[in-house]
Amino acid sequence: MEVIDILSPETANLPNFTVNTAVNFVNVVGIAGPGAVLHSCNGSFSSFARGDNFTILSCGIFIPERFTIYDYPPDALDYSAPIVSLSATLGGGVVPVLTFGNNGELKLPFMNYEFSIGVFTDVEKNGLVDPTFKLVTFFPLIANSLSISMVDVPAALNGIKFNVVPFFKVLHNFPLTV
User: All domains of the chain, ordered by start, with CATH?
Assistant: First the structure.
């Protein structure tokens, strides 16, 4: 059996920004602490079964349609795009999924775009040998590396919080569990 799930953090753990039209841009408040566990679309399932290898079909970030990413500062060439990470829970901690991007990190230069990846992840070779494991993300990986433009945003939106949604489309063999 093959299952495709679109995984993203729960709403309470999503990166977000609050509109402030008095400035040119605001920074996205990212996922802090141990990262955010990725859940299936219905929100209740997040654990992969032992031995469930998976293929990351695509990933991306969604920003509400009215907004755009603010121009990056010229001295930030190393961080010219927000970076999303993909890790997995293991023994009470998290380990990077090494087959995703560069040691578990990937730059996402465009918003509202699905980046096709097609990366197979052999769970045993990645050391994910717990009875179940969960995928975890940090986004944006580097603090203040993602800013949202406030240029031409209506003042009526001041003070309203909007979410930025990182997502991963994953093909796997066993149904996710709680």
Answer: 3-172 (2.60.120)
| Dmax (CA) of the chain | 53
**If we measure between CA atoms, which residue out of 80, 82, 81, 96 comes closest to residue 35?**
96
* Residue (of 84, 94, 85) closest to 126 by Cα position: 94
Other residues' Cβ atoms within 10 Å of the Cβ of residue 151 = 11
80/87 Cα distance (integer angstroms) = 22
Tell me the residue ranges of DSSP E strands in the chain. Answer: 3-9, 16-18, 25-27, 36-39, 47-49, 54-62, 83-85, 87-90, 93-96, 105-107, 115-121, 132-137, 147-149, 161-163, 165-172
SS3 of residue 172 by DSSP: strand
Residue holding tokens 């010219």? 80
The predicted-structure confidence for 93-151, as pLDDT tens digits, reads as follows 888 888 888 888 988 877 888 888 888 887 777 777 677 889 999 888 777 778 899 99
Q: What is the pLDDT of residues 36-82, one digit of tens each?
A: 999 998 778 899 887 788 899 999 999 998 898 886 555 544 445 77
Its pTM stands at 0.85
